[in-house]
Amino acid sequence: MPTDTLVKQTLVYEGKAKKVWTTEYPELYISEFKDDLTAFNGEKKSSEAGKGALNNKISTELFKFLNTQGIPTHFVEMMDETHMLHKRADVILIEVIVRNIAAGSLSKNLGIETGEILPFTLVEFDYKNDALGDPKINDQHCLLLNLVKDVSELDTIRDMARKINTLLQAFYAERNLTLVDFKLEFGKDAEGNIILIDELSPDNFRLWDSESGESMDKDRFRKGLGGLKVAYEEVLNRILGEKK
Ligand code: C5P
Q1: pLDDT tens by residue, 63-79
Q2: Given ligand 1 and candidates 43, 97, 108, 179, which is best to mutate, with the most ligand atoms within 8 Å of its CB?
Q3: pLDDT digit string, tens, across residues 142-155
Q4: Which of 58, 181, 185 to probe ligand 1 with, by most ligand atoms within 8 A of CB?
């Protein structure tokens, strides 16, 4: 089907960093990446001109890479600087957090020192619910809330998250970046397959420069370090550029 003439129709969702629109094709949606920045469940807010375009470009490269590695995703194509065309999916209201190194809420909640390499990859589930502050949930909570059909769907999600982690850890390592932790979202496509959705950007990933240990992600905003856009540009350049 021709996609170069597609335009945004009805706004179906507006989140902190993205707007999602319908198109003339029921199974295709357009995401618009915003420049807005939020942290601590929306308590800290700002905006950084050009951040949306950077996240769109970084997400595009990572979705393309994962597609070549056999991970099913919603990605179809990048349309322009701030718009991505993707498949429509029924969103599974679980934020899947994957951790390789202790940081952020893991360190805060469990007292594990930031920077400690975890003995195994930790996969956590948060309930995607802003009003409740995205609380941590376990498999039984997921079933209780009808977020999935059965435990096998949770196993599929965990398997996919681990595979994605293995692929992205190596991908980033080749670019001198350490993948500390990240958040993924999944949905079901028209055939009921579980696919990776949302975005893959430094808004949702903790990435440290492998040599200096410097944060190259949204922690620059969370911690008031400044230089967020420069860091995101550097991440994009390393993704696009030659491997080390
Ligand atoms: O805050 P916390 O340490 O739990 O975050 C773990 C990872 O998940 C971080 O990379 C963070 O950017 C990401 N995350 C996210 N959206 C959330 C919660 C966490 O992108 N709502």
Answers
A1: 999 999 999 999 999 99
A2: 97
A3: 999 999 999 999 99
A4: 181
